[in-house]
Write a structure and sequence with these properties.
Elements: H1 27-40, H2 43-50, H3 55-69, H4 73-82, H5 85-95, H6 98-110, H7 117-126, H8 129-143, H9 147-153, H10 157-167, H11 176-189, H12 193-199, H13 204-218, H14 222-229, H15 232-246, H16 248-256, H17 261-271, H18 276-287, H19 291-298, H20 301-311
Helix pairs in contact: 1-2, 1-3, 1-4, 2-20, 5-17, 6-7, 6-8, 7-15, 10-15, 11-12, 11-13, 14-15, 15-16, 16-18, 19-20
Amino acid sequence: MDSIFLTSSDMSWGSLGTVRSYSNFHADRDALEIQTALEQKDANNLVRILTNRSYVQRKQILEVYQSITEKVSDLVAGVKKAVSGDLATLLLGLMMTPLHFQAHRLRMAMEGLGTDEETLLEILCTTSSQQLKDISAAYNTIFQKDLEKDLKGESSGDFTKLLMALLRREEGVGGLQTDTEALSQALDAKKADPWIAILTTRNPDHLNKVLNRLESEREQMVDEALQKRFSGDLKLGLRTLVCCIRNPHVYLAQRLENMETAVVQGVMVARCEEDLLCVRAAFLRKTGTSLYTALQKAFTGDHLQALLAICRSED
């Protein structure tokens, strides 16, 4: 197996995840059951085990499996033979480290025809500055490529400036009135630089105060102002960043709303041990339907069961 599935780093996940450590955990037992499930192409047992263990536990299972088979690449190959399509992608995603999973998503967003700007923005706007540094390092290790250079190659102009600023994001504090005036003047002049500079170098609490004051003084919602003053990928990027500053869980709920397979799997696997409970709550408030129910309407079979297991329960 490639190191993408094995290398781990210490992560501090929150307590608002849906997937947590399994209390009656035995790595050797799970490894043997997975081996049998692969031989029998038993998707149900693969889903049952891999979606009910934390990443740390899944890593231990992989290590035991390696000691049993003496050829860990058999596990990835076995999963691909036992299941296929979206389910295989989901299970293989669960076997990656959290950092490597996000690095993998970034790479996939830049491969092939066209660029998936929304996935790039999702990851860059909802990830802490330290995690972005770790993801950049993981990206280099896995793909032998520089994330910054690849992002520059997939973008241009002010949108490139925004992506670079997000990648190097800081969280300081500025002056409330000074920042408000700078953003207001930049709107009138349709200048992106002040928006990029301020939104990527201040902490969320300060920025929310700035955005609230800006809306009050201009008597216009920030999102509406950005919609009218900017265009193209830059407009998408600034609106996404503002939404994430306001409430990242609402933004992620919006991402899930269309039930696009790659987006659903990406968000749910990435957030399942961190804050998927918050995303679920935001999804329910926004749509009036629980994420659990929405998944049942959009997906079927073993793939659905895997997604429901990660979602965990009805709201």
